[in-house]
Amino acid sequence: MLNHISYTQISTYLACPLKYSFQYVEQVPWPFKPEGLIFGSAIHQALEHYYNGRKEGRDVPLGEMIALYDAAWEKETTENAITIRFKNGNTRDSLFDTAEAMLETFLATVKPGEILAVEQPFSVDIMDPVSNEKLSVPLEGRIDLIERIPSGIAVIDHKTAAKKYDDERVANDLQLTAYSYVMSRQGHDPEDITLRFDVLMKNGNCSFLSYPTFRTQKDHVRLFKTAQSVTRGIEAGAFYPQKSWMCNDCVFAGECGKW
After folding, report:
1. Each residue of 180-229: pLDDT tens digit?
2. Of 114, 134, 188, 206, whose CA is between 20 and 30 Å from 162?
């Protein structure tokens, strides 16, 4: 029985309901972890450290960020003792070099505003803002970063990526919609909030790109309807495979093949 829903749960179910079951219902152990997940998480921890430092009023040198990145890798390989699946000839050492170049680019490029919150947790009711219909479970998660900028408030999600984002992804991404909805529940007008992906590119010449956007009440209604449909599917036990390009790296490919 669900006691909450998160963006990750919603996106997992939308991508493949059977994967959702393996992950959240059956809790099947992962036989390996893709390099991309560990790399992205390690970069994320380094950025979190940077913004916490800035919130405290101090500069954070590259060496500190690299140390946080490396510690995250070490935890996966020693404490968690999980097999890491590398791709395209990558190794831990080659990815370390990539991370160092990316974080160096980040420090040379970033222009943070006033840091209001880092890794801000939330738990809010999910309501249709028009009909006031409410789901039986709250939406829970964390917002990576909230800044004060000249135009107001910016709500930011950190990403690493190999390709630039297109306009459609930025305009329709459900995670940013969820962030917008959370801020609206805290009294902010959604059209006064700047939503932003801050993306560290990891292929070719490293770059740090920002993708600002916004959401409206119409987007919040769509979020409610999506969350409602997903929770109904989960509670009904509607779990089935959804074939896509993501199957190639899926940690549950073996289990899926036996389904």
Report:
1. 999 999 998 888 899 999 999 987 778 999 999 999 999 999 999 999 99
2. 114
Say whether 29 sits in a helix, a strand or coil.
Answer: coil
Amino acid (1-letter code) at residue 177: T
CB 66, CB 99: distance < 8 Å: yes
b/e code 161-180 from CB counts within 10 Å (16+ = b): eeeeeeeeeeeebbbbbbbb
pLDDT at 179: 97
User: In angstroms, what CA-CA distances link 151 with 120, 140, 148, 193?
Assistant: 21, 27, 8, 9
Structural domains of the chain, ranges and CATH numbers in brackets: 7-257 (3.90.320.10)
Residues in the chain, total:
259
Contact 51, 146 (CB under 8 A): no
pTM of the model: 0.92
The DSSP code for 205 is S
140 within 8 A of 6, measured Cβ to Cβ: yes
β-sheet bridge partners, residue 196: 156, 212
**102 is written with which tokens?**
């990316």
Q: Give the chain's residues under pLDDT 70.
A: 80
Strand partners, 124: 139
Q: Can you read off the two tokens belonging to residue 155?
A: 């709500």
Residue 136's CB is within 10 A of a number of other CB atoms, namely 13
In angstroms, the CA 209 to CA 105 distance is 11
Residue of 39, 248, 1, 9 lying closest to 139 (CA atoms): 9
